[in-house]
Structures are given as C-alpha cells and as structure tokens.
C-alpha cells in the first residue's frame, strides 16, 4: 500500500529514542519466540519481563530523526516514517468511527525503552501499553517478521501491525482491553478474543484507509489497496499465529497455551473487518466460533 505523495505526516504524537545502559531480555530465537507468544501485538510487557532471564549490557540507539518524516513520499521511503504515517491514517479513520476517540502516543525505539508497563527490549516486538496509552515500535522487528516468521515484506504487512496496536487503544478507550486478563484462557479464552478483535479492528482500518482524506490537505492518506496489499496483511497475520509460532519453536502445537489465536483465526478476523468496515462485526467476545 502506497501513501499519497501529497499527504503531510504529523509527528506531534510521536517520539523517537531508546538505548543507554540497562536491561536486555533473553536472547536468540528462543527468547524472541517466548516473548512474541506472550507479547507480540498487544500484551502487557510488565507481566512477562519479570519472568524472563535478564542480561545487562550496552545499547547504542540514538533516536530516528523525525524531521525526515514530512510527506507521503517519506513514508514510502523510510519504515519509521511509514509507522508514523500509518498512525496518522488510523487516527483519522477511528476519529470518524468512534465518538470521543483520542489519539494515542507513538514511540519509536531501538535497544530498550522504559514504558508505563515496565522496561521493554527490542525482543518484545511491537506492543501497546494502556498505562501510558502509547504504542511502541522497534522497526527492526519488521525484518524479524520476514526472516524469522516468514511474513511478506510488503508495506501493508507492516501497516497491519501498526493498525493492530491501535486496535488495542480503541479497546482501551471502550473499556474492554482489561478483559484480556479475565476469565478462561486458552484457544477460546478472553486473551485470544482480545487479540482477534484487534485484528478485526486492523481490518476495519484497511477498509477505509484509501478513502479517508487528511483534513489538512484534502487528499486520501493512501492509494487504493490491491490484491497484493491484502495478501501482505494476511501473510503478516498468519506469520504471528500461535500455532505457527509454537510449531516453529517446539515442533508441536498446544492450543491451551495460545494467547493470540491461530494463523487462520487471525486472518479470518482481519478479513471480517476489511470486508465489512463495521466495528460492530468485531465482537469476538460474543462469537461462538472464532474461525
């Protein structure tokens, strides 16, 4: 998915930084997979970081210069600008769909960063912290998504991740995000239903992404989606399915340990949101069949 050259990137809710001396979490493929299963795309890192092996070391991670992010052309060139521009687009869509919508903060980091949910390292992957209403992204993760998890490298694969994290912000605003920690867990538990709803919300964004216009410029944020774009998003959704991650990490699948849903479920709920554009169709908590 390509951003329109005429759109202007708003960096007012975005900060960039990270690094310095401090904690790192785990290491290698095993540590990454453990954290991805528990945290990828939305869980509270504070619940998991304290359970992981801790190492200390040096990080050198100066912040990305956000003044590079000015136009849609910059979003098409720099992955960091693409994250910010996608956030702008998602904000615009939800501002029209949800009465009282307020924008979350966005933090680009590398190495490690302090959050309202605890200290997080790059191994955590993208996540949303409800305590400070901030979505955190180490954009190096998008390379991991391709090389370790087999996702497509297309831009909508990356934009899906951003839209999913913003889906958790929508859940937070609606007062349902806390349900992820309550009730039964496992393949039909509240945690999985929370994540699948965020996937559906990402699909809702994709439904409107190319027709929602930026108020300041009057141009759509993005050009129309192609079939390849949708395949990119579905590829990303499948690559972070619990069953696929478990199979790659341990050689077996244990549904009772699922936290985000199977690959097919994640693809299904993204598709529901994309095809309908209706957030009310994303009520995974009421669904008898999760797909």
Automatic annotation (TrEMBL):
Spans traversing the lipid bilayer: 23-43
Listed Polar residues bias regions: 1-15
Swiss-Prot/TrEMBL keywords: Membrane, Transmembrane, Transmembrane helix
Keyword match Membrane: yes
Source organism superkingdom: Bacteria
Protein name: Neutral zinc metallopeptidase
Membrane topology (UniProt): Single-pass membrane protein
Location in or out of the cell: Membrane
Family annotation (SUPFAM superfamilies): Metalloproteases ('zincins'), catalytic domain (SSF55486)
Protein source organism: [Mycobacterium] kokjensenii
Keyword Hydrolase: no
Annotated segments matching region Disordered: 1-20
């Amino acid at each position: 998915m390509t951003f329109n050259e005429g759109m202007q990137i708003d960096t007012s809710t975005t900060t960039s930084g990270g690094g310095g001396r401090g904690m790192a979490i785990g290491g290698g493929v095993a540590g990454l997979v453990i954290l991805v299963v528990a945290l990828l795309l939305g869980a509270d890192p504070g619940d998991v970081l304290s359970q992981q092996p801790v190492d200390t070391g040096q990080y050198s991670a100066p912040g990305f210069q956000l003044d590079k992010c000015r136009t849609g052309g910059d979003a098409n060139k720099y992955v960091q600008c693409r994250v910010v521009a996608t956030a702008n687009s998602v904000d615009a869509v939800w501002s029209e769909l949800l009465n009282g919508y307020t924008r979350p903060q966005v933090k680009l980091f590398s190495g490690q960063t302090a959050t309202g949910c605890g200290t997080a390292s790059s191994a955590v992957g993208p996540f949303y912290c409800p305590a400070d209403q901030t979505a955190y992204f180490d954009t190096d993760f998008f390379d991991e998504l391709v090389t370790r998890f087999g996702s497509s490298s297309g831009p909508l694969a990356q934009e899906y991740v951003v839209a999913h994290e913003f889906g958790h912000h929508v859940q937070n605003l609606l007062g349902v995000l806390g349900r992820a920690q309550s009730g039964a867990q496992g393949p039909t538990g509240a945690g999985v239903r929370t994540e699948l709803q965020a996937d559906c919300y990402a699909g809702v964004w994709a439904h409107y992404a190319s027709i929602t216009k930026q108020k300041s410029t009057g141009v759509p944020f993005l050009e129309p989606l192609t079939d390849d774009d949708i395949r990119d998003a579905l590829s990303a959704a499948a690559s972070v399915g619990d069953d696929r991650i478990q199979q790659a990490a341990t050689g077996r699948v244990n549904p009772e340990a699922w936290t985000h849903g199977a690959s097919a479920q994640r693809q299904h709920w993204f598709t529901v949101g994309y095809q309908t554009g209706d957030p009310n169709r994303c009520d995974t908590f009421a669904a008898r069949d999760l797909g």
